[in-house]
UniProtKB/TrEMBL annotation:
This is 4,4'-diaponeurosporene oxygenase. It comes from the Bacteria. Belongs to the carotenoid/retinoid oxidoreductase family. CrtP subfamily. Transmembrane segments: none annotated. Keywords: Carotenoid biosynthesis, Oxidoreductase. It catalyses: all-trans-4,4'-diaponeurosporene + 2 AH2 + 2 O2 = 4,4'-diaponeurosporenal + 2 A + 3 H2O. Pathway: Carotenoid biosynthesis; staphyloxanthin biosynthesis; staphyloxanthin from farnesyl diphosphate: step 3/5. The keyword Ribonucleoprotein does not apply.
Amino acid sequence: MARIVVIGAGVGGLATAARLAVSGHEVTVFERSDTVGGKLGRYVHDTPAGSFHFDTGPSLLTLPQVFHDLFEATGAKLDEYLDLTPLDPIVRHVFPGGGPALDSCADPDEFAARIGVALGDRAAADWRRLWRRAARVWTASHRDILRRTVDSPRDLAALAWRLGDLAAIGPGRTLRGLGRSHLSDPRLRMLLDRYATYTGADPRRAPAALVAVPYAELTFGGWYLRGGLGTLADALLSRCLDLGVTVRTGETVTRIDAAGGRVHGVRLAGVHAPVPADVVVANADALTVYRDLLPHPGRLAALTDRSLAGFVLLLGVRGDSGLAHHNVFFPTDYHAEFDAVFGDPGRGVRARPATDPTIFVTVADDPTARPTGHEAWFVLVNAARHGTAPDAVNWRRPGLADAYADRILDVLAARGVDVRDRLVFRETRTPADLDAATAAPGGSIYGTAGGLLRPANRGPVHGLWLVGGSTHPGGGLPMVTLSAQIVADEIGPAW
């Protein structure tokens, strides 16, 4: 039986702790915040009309089988803890210039038919052709990448890729390039580009292999958890406690002790004596690990390409807006938005708040989330990370957050959704706020920008492992949960 310390009680940390506990290890989780869940945050705003409840992180659960597997592996059933509700539409896409919206769904044939009705027969045929390629990419990724460690480019090169897989994955090709070669309708290209942001990346530089992301969502479905996605954190905490895991909130790990090339324990803020451990699992951003907890210049040098962040509005809205659960309002110029979010130092373009951004609006049809006759809106805009570098924005600049919130509401109104006179309240969450709340450097949602090769799960010293959205196999709830499975399998059982 190993003494295992898990740093961070996000989904990755809790899932790893539960898997290791059921394997017979002694597991302690230290979480700097007073609550568990990490980026799977929640917020309640009380008003005279009643309480508004928000998920302030992920708003969609995909690949539900990953979570069924997790709960079954730890001796439980997912349905005993969570109420999964399938969504149709998964996302309503509203394109610039008017015209019909496009509702995505988990039936590929039905979605292609909806594309035909909204965008024409040629667009539907294009999508079917892209879909066949996406299926090959997903199959290869799921088989060879998503459930095993990938520590270096050599690991990728050594995989027994089939020639058809390589042709579909298109090494060196971008997601934007894939869309331009397969999709004649610019609206479908915008839809495809958006999936790069699921991994925090710019579609103009993100690998074409990310076509597997929409395939997973639109094949296995998108789901809402009744009561909010934060209930997943509650369920994982319950499993951990039932399995004997010690979870200590309000405890900040300041350093990993690793003399002689192996871990020996961790140091806690305000505590003189170290906490001994045979194994340490860090559910923290890889940048935080290699900059602060276990300084390692070699690993740190590879973490400069940071993912995008998000600017959030939490709105209490009177009345019924008639929106879907998830809605995307696209801009006229998607290219200009990515220039604003990521900057381009080579062309002297600094990052800045996008003036005409894509706006993502989540309105949960859940009576537990809002008072009767009201809606709780989670509004997300792609944003540059917080900082002073050319590819960042100082989101703490006085007046910026309120001014940008005004701008977003004005843009929504221009796109036909004006709620400015129906607001009960509004609050903002900037990338700087996410940085402070979750120790995500700069508020980068996914750590490093998306790609096939992300920071390895295996640390540079014996006994150190990394899980979570900043590491392999990537960001998003199912990928984070798969990272926990990879690490728990590598550590192995206590007997």
